[in-house]
Specification:
mainly alpha
Length: 131
């Protein structure tokens, strides 16, 4: 029977009261394992290599995206310029052949983009490549 009070006192000594809460001695959480320093350094280097590779891919993607947007902007500027020319021609009382074709329903005669100068260039390229 003498053992019972001894066990209680030993357990009581292991537990401390801090700010009304029971606190056990020692550090909480997982103790860090003994990791080899060289292995940790190599993992860090590998992680840095992968990070640089991801960054390079991200920048390549963004550069391709920017160049495609720039090409789209150039195409839209050309189209806007064509419409401006059509408007100035109509202000002078002339009706461009492209608009006449649209009004008569001869859309098949129009080249993609609607510019008549492009058709002459394309026809020249086609005839020179065939002959």
């Amino acid at each position: 029977m003498n053992y019972f009070p001894l066990i209680i006192t030993q357990c009581y000594l292991c537990v401390q009261m801090v700010a009304g809460k029971v606190k056990k001695p020692g550090k909480r959480g997982r103790k860090p394992a003994k990791i080899d320093l060289k292995a940790k350094l190599e993992r860090s280097r590998q992680s840095a290599r992968e990070c640089r590779a991801r960054k390079k891919l991200r920048y390549q993607y963004l550069e391709e995206l920017v160049s495609s947007k720039e090409r789209a902007i150039c195409a839209l500027r050309e189209e806007l310029e064509m419409y401006k020319q059509w408007c100035s021609a109509m202000d002078q009382g002339k009706i461009p052949s492209e608009i006449k074709a649209l009004l008569t329903g001869d859309e098949q005669k129009l080249p993609p983009g609607g510019s008549s100068t492009k058709t002459t260039k394309n026809k020249n390229n086609i005839s020179s490549s065939n002959g």
